[in-house]
Write a structure and sequence with these properties.
Layout: H1 2-35, H2 47-60, E1 64-65, E2 68-69, H3 76-86, H4 90-117, H5 120-131, H6 134-139, H7 146-166, H8 169-185, H9 192-206, H10 240-265, H11 273-290, H12 300-311, H13 317-334, H14 336-352, H15 356-366, H16 373-380, H17 382-387, H18 391-420, H19 428-443, H20 458-475, H21 479-486
Antiparallel strand pairs: 1-2
Length: 487
């Protein structure tokens, strides 16, 4: 009877978290449509880079941009845009699908927390934390790939951690598929399969020392249901064949697109974004610093001239990209300490950013771009707008920035509490989440690093925040309530 009551309560609470997730994600685009009546606000600077190959797929069946094979953006998100384009409601259909996916991610992080900690309270708190997470809310309203990528990435984390706990080969294979698909949406995840294979290899050679029971001090009363006869800790070392299969699936799926790129353009890489970024972002930031210029974009003109002088008028795109990669690494290796500072600053921006400018832009569009809000999003900056006495900027602080900072700060506080509580055991699933978060942060750092790249990290933050919140409430739980629960 008690078990049935708790199961019913769990379903109601999880359903409420999902309802909250859907409503808060519908609120912003709904407000925009009701006030502005225009869908152009949903388009970001980079949206056209995904839209054009999607439109060409519909019109000609070819994945091309500007008349040449598209090798910069993998086809994951352009394919996702096709349903909206086919229905002639690109923005509305895509946003609706993204709201569904983001709410599905709420359910996935609930499952992920339950797999890792086997703590029902922590899993429910995790669901509520992610349902209110600011980045996941605002990016549902933008035609950008973050929502789709994050959903697929959390799917990978869930099934990878299930494999770690239970040892089922099917879970590992499914995690490899999810990880590869997420790489087709966000190219910077291309190197993550190799890192995860190394993680599995370390686990194999370290054995049981990396797999320990979750702490019982905060676990609560309900543990996740498991199949009969399955060791809940999977303390045996993963066979080499399992690691090889994981790598083979990822290599096969990523390699298929590399073969396509080579056949279509002579470029054998997965995405030309890597080479372009090394040249026009990382190397450009070093060059701009050496010239005493504040922004890496200020070095683009010089880099364009160097590229044109080297490539010549008849150079193929694949040759230009090879030059970008070679020259970019040459510049970085020539000034490693200078670039290290730039890269770390980018990582700090990724961690500290609130994405407030995007909220302000969207709300400003709905309000007809009032003075003050518009000045912040167009480059004047918050402090300058405030110093000029703009009422719109002051209103933006209290209506947007302070609430965003409050929610983000609470999530970070609960996440930190999970670790300072000293009740988390360093199991392989915990190490997996931290490894993936660190990978995303490091790979997306640099001059172009800012808060949107934290989108894929926030489900991990929510998992630990949910655990920290469960720990906090457990500590202040009345003794009588504990006894009633234990009974």
């Amino acid at each position: 009877m008690i078990q049935a009551h708790r199961s019913s309560s769990t379903l109601r609470l999880l359903g409420f978290a999902l309802l909250v997730s859907i409503l808060v994600r519908l609120a912003l685009p709904g407000y925009l449509l009701l006030t502005a009546g225009d869908t152009q606000a949903f388009f970001e600077v980079y949206t056209h880079e995904y839209r054009e190959p999607a439109l060409n797929l519909l019109s000609s069946g070819s994945y091309v941009s500007h008349g040449t094979p598209e090798i910069y953006r993998p086809p994951g998100y352009p394919l996702f845009l096709l349903s909206g384009l086919l229905l002639k409601q690109e923005a509305l259909v895509t946003i609706l699908l993204q709201i569904i996916l983001s709410s599905l991610t709420v359910w996935l992080v609930f499952r992920l927390s339950l797999v890792i900690f086997e703590n029902l309270a922590a899993a429910l708190f995790t669901a509520f934390c992610y349902s209110l997470e600011p980045l996941s809310i605002v990016f549902c309203s933008l035609l950008m790939p973050e929502t789709l990528m994050t959903c697929l990435l959390v799917g990978f984390l869930l099934w990878f951690c299930k494999y770690v706990k239970e040892g089922a080969l099917g879970d590992l294979a499914l995690s490899a598929i999810f990880l590869s698909l997420s790489g087709y949406v966000a190219a910077y995840l291309y190197f993550l399969p190799l890192l995860m294979a190394i993680t599995l290899g370390v686990w194999r050679f370290c054995g049981k020392r990396l797999v320990k029971p979750s702490p019982s001090a905060v676990e609560g009363e309900l543990r996740a249901a498991r199949q009969p006869g399955v060791d809940p800790l999977f303390s045996a070392r993963p066979p080499s064949a399992h690691i090889a299969l994981f790598l083979a699936i990822c290599a096969g799926l990523f390699g298929a697109w590399q073969v396509r790129n080579y056949v279509a353009s002579g470029y054998g890489g997965f995405s030309g974004v890597f080479d372009r970024s090394i040249y026009y972002a990382q190397a450009a930031s070093v060059v701009a610093g050496q010239q005493g210029k504040p922004e890496f974009q200020s070095a683009w003109e010089d880099l364009d001239r160097q590229l044109a002088a080297h490539a010549g008028p008849d150079a193929r795109l694949s040759d230009e990209l090879r030059y970008m990669r070679h020259e970019g690494f040459r510049v970085l290796l020539g000034a490693p300490l200078d670039y290290l500072q730039i890269h770390v600053k980018g990582m700090v921006r990724t961690l500290a950013g609130l994405e407030a400018h995007t909220y302000l832009r969207l709300l400003g569009s709905a309000r007809g771009q009032p003075s003050g809000w518009d000045s912040i999003t167009r480059g004047k900056g918050l402090m300058r707008s405030l110093s000029e006495g703009r009422r719109g900027a002051t209103r933006a602080v209290f209506l947007v920035i302070v609430p965003l900072a409050g929610v983000a700060g609470a999530l970070c506080l609960f996440c930190a509490l999970a670790f300072v509580s000293r009740t988390i055991t360093w199991t392989m699933p915990v190490a997996t989440l931290l490894t993936v978060a660190a990978y995303i942060l490091v790979v997306t750092g640099g001059p172009h690093g800012y808060s949107r790249y934290r989108h894929g990290i926030m489900p991990i933050v929510a998992v630990f925040a949910g655990y920290g919140l469960a720990f906090l409430l457990k500590r202040f739980e009345p003794t009588s309530f504990r006894k009633d629960n234990a009974a």
